[in-house]
Amino acid sequence: MMHQATREVVQTRAGSVRGVCRASGSYAYLGIPFAEPPVGELRFMAPVAAAGWEGVLDATEYGPTPQRRLVGPDPWIPEPTYPGDGTLVLNVFTPAPGNARASLPVLVWIHGGGYEGGSPSGSWYDGQSFNERNVIVVTISYRLGFDGFGYVEGSDAPVNRGLLDQNLALRWVHENIAEFGGDPRRVTIAGQSAGAGSVLCHLASPLSEGLFSRAIAQSPATGDRPLAQARMIAAKLSHRLGITAALEGWRSASEEQILDASEGLGQEFALPDDPVTFADSVLDGAVFPRDRWASAMPFGPVFDRSDPFLPDSVMAATYGGAGYNVPLLIGCTRHEYTGLTAPMASEWNRKYEPRAVLAKAGFPKLVAWAMLREFPELAVDTSKVLGQLLTAAAFHLPMINIVQARASARVAAVCDIETGVTAPAIKAGTWVYEFAWQKPSTGLADHCVEVPFVFNCLRDEHVTKVFGTDNPPRALAAAIQTDWVRFISSGTPSFPSWREGERGRIYGSESHSGVKSARPFQIEVNTMRLMREL
Predict the structure, then answer these.
(1) Which of 445, 521, 456, 519 is nearest to 483 (CA)?
(2) Could you tell me which InterPro entries the record lists for this protein (predicted)?
(3) Known active-site residue 239
(4) Do 219 and 335 belong together in one domain?
(5) What residues pair up with 286 in beta bridges, in sequence order?
């Protein structure tokens, strides 16, 4: 039954917005501007908060998106593109509009897409299922590609414009979410892939401190790089365009021209053709080390001592105690990028046996045996075994490094101003999960597979297409969303934190609910560590 229409209008600080009520009692407020359109004199500049408007803003349809083109012909997640200049918008899904007393917890979702693509307007990100559990969902947009992360020579244009967009959106949430029934003191920022990398950047940033109380990072791809790397990419791109690398040069190029010239910048990174060379490259750190991120992922967060948002790398900031007081739920899928080596499968599998390749690359027999025992689905596929090494290098080990950095972070003691008593600072917990359910279409738990489980949108037609089944385990979706809701609401999920025995949660096990308590990534991490020590 539809609720009264008067409840569909909510008053924000900038003006009134009218949303739409769905049959479930979930209200959607779409395309609300949190910043002025980043065009004209605001192009390549820091975001400016949206000016107010007269009357009631129609917020019943999604607004323009920073994404202008789909990334790849067949994206993993349905994230549509909408034209228009006013791209810095957000979407609010709530069960309690206009009820400031509801004080419901809030999930702010940051989409992924390698900092070049993605959209907050995808069907998978609809907050309806979270609303049914009394959690408000906000999905936000941010500038992408060079527009959001390109270096502009000799100007006031900040390099981390995309992250500053996110920061301004978080400030909007802090100021307005109570009018939608939310509690500004219980805001969880969450994201997947580049969105999860953004989450880690906000944990590391002094400018985002206090804007959220919890954080969730799903398959984080931080991709932060020093300013010199951003300068190199900008020089290469401006050369392609035939313009100067200064502000007037970039503004002389159209959005389409910059997008065209950006094509292929990330393709200059190539995997070795020979499987033994590939394995050696992973073990030697030649695959996805920091100094080659600018080739693998040309645009992304930039750290520099002069940058107010990210004065240090995410890892260094984490070791220094940044975000120590914010609970963090973090994890990856089991196979992430394992499927990227599929194009080499026919040739490699015909010529090489997995154990033989690992042995030739220097893996002791016992280590090779342990690795293939942990991943039996890879034991007959050389390309997937080596793809698993890529997954470990690009996702699993960096994620574990963040977890360990939080555990060993240097945190100053806290002094009570009134009593003068000094006490050790209390670190917030870190919880680690692994998503292991393998979709039938690939036989892998690869990148993005957990997202529709988290949002419990398994009936979405794109899920059926991507998964290769119309009957994924719904009990698993209920279990993982229950843990997410508990964390968003209270700051603790239903399993032990990392520092309590290094145990975590594996989703996609053979138990009835598809969940078990275990040590995620333990054998793989130990294998990679052992190889580094040999």
Answers:
(1) 456
(2) AB_hydrolase_fold, CarbesteraseB, Carboxylesterase_B_AS, Lipase_GDXG_HIS_AS, Type-B_Carboxylest/Lipase
(3) no
(4) no
(5) none
The C-alpha angle with vertex 417 and arms to 413 and 422, in degrees rounded to 5, equals 30
- Say if CB 173 and CB 13 are below 8 A apart: no
- Examine residue 465 and state whether it is found in any structural domain, yes or no: yes
Residue 75 CA to residue 28 CA, distance in Å, equals: 25
Confidence of residue 396 (pLDDT cuts 50, 70, 90): confident
Instruction: Look up residue 240 and give its amino acid.
Output: R
Q: Taking all residues of the chain, what is their mean pLDDT, rounded to a whole number? A: 87
**Residue 164 neighbours by CB under 8 Å, 6+ apart:** 46, 47, 158, 207, 309
Helix (H/G/I), strand (E/B), else coil: 233: helix
Higher-confidence residue of 74 and 464: namely 464
Residue-wise over 301-325: b if at least 16 C-beta within 10 A, else e? bbbbeebebbbbbbbebbbebbbbe
Helices (H) and strands (E) in the chain, counts: 19, 18
Domain containing residue 492: 328-343+362-388+396-533
Q: What pLDDT, in 10s, does the model give residues 314-368?
A: 999 999 999 999 999 999 999 998 887 777 777 777 777 887 777 776 667 777 7
Which of 180, 202, 223 is the last residue before a domain boundary?
A: 223
Choosing from 223, 238, 255, the residue where a domain stops is 223
Tokens of 145: 């590609």
Together in a domain, 106 and 219: yes
Q: In the chain, how many domains are there?
A: 2
Residues forming a β-bridge with 505 = 433, 517
Average pLDDT over residues 463-480: 93
Catalytic-labelled residue, pool 26, 129, 141, 193: 193
Q: What is the pLDDT of residues 298-307, one digit of tens each?
A: 899 999 999 9
**111 has catalytic annotation:** no
Cα–Cα distance, 215 to 396 (Å, whole number): 18
- Summarised one tens digit per residue, pLDDT across range 173-182 is 999 999 999 9
* Judgement on whether residues 337 and 485 belong to the same structural domain of the protein: yes
Residue 108: its pLDDT value, please? 99
Catalytic residue among 336, 434, 450, 524: 336
Residue of 119, 447, 450, 497 marked active site: 447
Q: Which two tokens stand for residue 213?
A: 């109380």
Q: Structure pTM?
A: 0.92
Residue 193: active-site member: yes
The two three-digit tokens of residue 429, written as one number: 């917990």
What is the rounded distance in angstroms from the CA atom of residue 212 to the CA atom of residue 317? 18
Which CA distances in Å does 378 have to 66, 282, 355, 467, 470?
38, 17, 11, 19, 25
Q: Residue 483 pLDDT more than 60?
A: yes
Residue 523 has a pLDDT of 60
23 by Cβ neighbours in 10 Å (0-12 / 13-18 / 19+) ranks as exposed
Q: What percent of the chain has pLDDT over 70?
A: 84
Tell me the backbone φ, ψ of residue 526, rounded to 5 degrees: -60, -40
Cα radius of gyration rounded to whole Å, the chain = 23
Residue 183 φ then ψ, to 5°: -105, 110
What is the residue-wise DSSP string for 276-325?
HHHHHHHHTT-SS-GGGHHHHS-S--EE-TT-SS-SS-HHHHHHTTTTTT
